[in-house]
UniProtKB/TrEMBL annotation:
Mur ligase C-terminal domain boundaries: 314-444
Pfam families, per database record: Mur_ligase, Mur_ligase_C, Mur_ligase_M
Pathway annotation: Cell wall biogenesis; peptidoglycan recycling
Species, as recorded: Limnobacter profundi
Gene: mpl
Official protein name in the record: UDP-N-acetylmuramate--L-alanyl-gamma-D-glutamyl-meso-2,6-diaminoheptandioate ligase
EC number: 6.3.2.45
UniProt domain Mur ligase central: residue ranges: 108-292
Length: 463
């Protein structure tokens, strides 16, 4: 089959393209912005790319047009496809029908931590010898790719609640039909397509309705939004987890910033000692252990694998160090994710400093409110408290529709804002001292600020 993918350079659709190619299909595609790294990955996979959505692409005459949710009505190529009555489908539906059918699907859903948790789960299954396939919205360490078919029965997929396509406004994850569904958390987000939290809860309920009675739903204890989802109807055993002291079959006894014991029904089953920090990552790990256990992985094996987990690109990824200052890249863009990222970073900084017998450096939060929800300012009022752990808050404000300085006023003298990237870099360089950590948070490229900042810090040392 020849498929032509509209919106092929997105993380999800690019992964779909590579999976389709691995199945032996002829794959081509187009996008408005064809650029590295995804364009490089696709070209290396032998996938021909076209810049833009011109109607001349009709001459390609594929068997099926696969449409990403970046495409809307008015798109010239899509309008031509509709007018000529050509066969088309969405990316998630194609994945559900051609990749996931017949596989033991483990789907990871939630407002935060989907990529990290999916990556951990794929890693644990791989280390257990299950050779899983996966499709993840990031590049998990140890694999080097965001998607692979795998050779075993299991398939891990990051289950996004964003809408499927312009012609299918259900969440992507309703197409995945998982045997194990991880519902990691649930808060309001995606204000551009959801009017309120209740609307998202409805989509999560649709997902729950697809999980078989012999499957498993894994979720945190005492999360009101998820409890409302489950009370609307659940026909599957539910296993809850907690690193917060709540009553649950799966619990963690935290022994340090990056060390915890795993308990199953009150009995210690394993120990995780890793390079990651923060209670959110402990909860992610518990979800992974419970999900992996549901498909036969021993708890001790899962703990051992997590202790060796190499991480995920753009999730507290150390991009470099200069002038004694560490520069990290993180995807956090929701107030809760920002808070948990900074809490984890501060705890890890403190632990490392104590071990070395030196004072803990300052934590500098560098933030770009880039997501649609953040640009709209929908969650802006919750932002000030998210930065409590940071000694300095630097916000890049280009393209923002609300007054950042007024909204973040309670941050006080710690706050610096600018819509000029060079000014932002200069300010961070003027602040940062040896032992400090800079955590740059954005769901975009942030104008390449990480490398620019590292180079500017290095120049300061040479000057």
């Amino acid at each position: 089959m020849h498929i032509h993918i509209l919106g092929i350079c997105g993380t999800f659709m690019g992964g779909v393209a590579q999976l389709a190619k691995s199945l032996g299909h002829t794959v081509t595609g187009c996008d408005a912005n064809v650029y590295p790294p995804m364009s490089t990955q696709l070209t290396q996979a032998g996938i021909e790319l076209t810049e833009g959505f011109g109607v001349e692409q009709l001459a390609i005459k594929p068997d099926l047009w696969v449409v990403g949710n970046v495409v809307s009505r008015g798109n010239p190529l899509m309008e031509a496809i509709l007018n000529q009555g050509l066969a088309y489908t969405s990316g998630p539906q194609w994945v559900g029908e051609h990749i996931l059918r017949g596989r033991k699907v483990l789907a990871v859903a939630g407002t935060h931590g989907k990529t990290s948790t999916s990556s951990m789960l794929a890693w644990v299954l791989q280390q257990a010898g299950l050779n899983p396939g996966f499709l993840i919205g990031g590049v998990p360490g140890g694999f080097g790719v965001s998607a692979t078919l795998g050779q075993g029965d299991c398939f891990v997929i990051e289950a996004d609640e964003y809408d499927t396509a312009f012609f299918d406004k259900r969440s992507k994850f309703v197409h995945y039909r998982p045997v194990v569904a991880v519902l990691n958390n649930l808060e309001f987000d995606h204000a551009d397509i959801f009017p309120d939290l209740a609307a998202i809860e409805t989509q999560f309920h649709h997902l729950v309705r697809t999980v078989p009675s012999e499957g498993r739903v894994v979720c945190p204890a005492n999360t009101e939004s998820l409890e409302r989802v489950l009370k609307r109807g659940c026909w599957t055993p539910v296993e809850r987890f907690s690193a917060n002291g709540d009553e649950a079959p799966w619990q963690a006894r935290v022994l340090g910033a990056s060390r915890f014991e795993v308990l199953m029904n009150g009995e210690a089953k394993g120990l995780v000692e890793w390079d990651w920090s923060g209670l959110h990552n402990v909860n992610n790990a518990l979800a992974v252990i419970a999900a992996a256990h549901a498909v036969g992985v021993k708890v001790t094996d899962a703990c051992k694998a997590l202790s060796e987990f190499p991480g995920v690109k753009r999730r507290m990824e150390l991009r470099g160090e200069a002038a004694g200052v560490k520069v990290y890249d993180d995807f956090a863009h929701h107030p809760t994710a920002i808070a948990t990222t900074l809490e984890g970073a501060k705890a890890r900084m403190t632990e490392i400093a104590a071990g070395a017998g030196v004072p803990t450096g300052n934590l500098i939060a560098l933030f770009e409110p880039r997501s649609n929800t953040m640009k709209m300012g929908t969650l802006a009022q919750a932002l000030p408290a998210s930065f409590d752990e940071a000694q300095a808050v630097v916000c890049y404000t280009a393209g923002i529709q609300w007054n950042v300085r007024d909204t973040l006023g309670s941050v006080g003298e710690r706050l610096f804002t600018s819509d000029d990237l060079n000014e932002v870099i200069d300010h961070v360089v003027s602040l940062a001292q040896p032992g400090d950590w800079v955590v740059a948070m954005s769901n975009g490229s942030f104008g390449g600020i990480h490398q620019k900042l590292i180079e500017a810090l290095a120049t300061r040392v040479r000057a």
